[in-house]
Amino acid sequence: MVEDLSNLLNSGEVPNIFASDEKGEICEKMGVIDRQKDKSMQTDGTPISLFKLFVDTVKEQLHICLAFSLIGDGFRNRIRKFPAIVNCCTIDWFQVSILKCYF
User: Where are the transmembrane segments (predicted)?
Assistant: First the structure.
């Protein structure tokens, strides 16, 4: 699961997450959205460009919140295996006093 999140953060998509019929359905729906755009903003209508439009839209609109415990070696090992968790994220180091206020 952390590998999928790392891929999502790094490239904007998880490889092979959609079956071919699902990809076709996505392209079909993105084609409808694409045709509603201004002519200068439209893609060429090929499945590859429509799927790229889908991925670009997801990249713009998807927000992910991750929470890791810093206790133990687990966090350090995950960061070493999946550097996108650090490189492609904004990290907020919450203090204990803040946690006590809200939780």
Answer: none
DSSP 27-80: HHHHHHHHHTS-GGG-----HHHHHHHHHHHHHHH---------SSSHHHHHHH
For residues 58 and 67, the answer to whether their CB atoms sit within 8 Å is no
Q: Pseudo-torsion of CA 2, 84, 20, 37, nearest 10°?
A: 130
* Prediction pTM value: 0.68
Q: What angle do CA 92, 98, 103 make, to 5 degrees?
A: 110
CB 55 within 8 A of CB 14: no
Separation between Cα atoms, residue 9 and residue 66, nearest integer Å: 11
- pLDDT digit string, tens, across residues 18-68: 999 999 999 999 999 999 988 888 889 899 999 999 988 988 888 888 888
Assign 90 to helix, strand or coil.
Answer: coil
Q: What is the CA radius of gyration of the chain?
A: 19
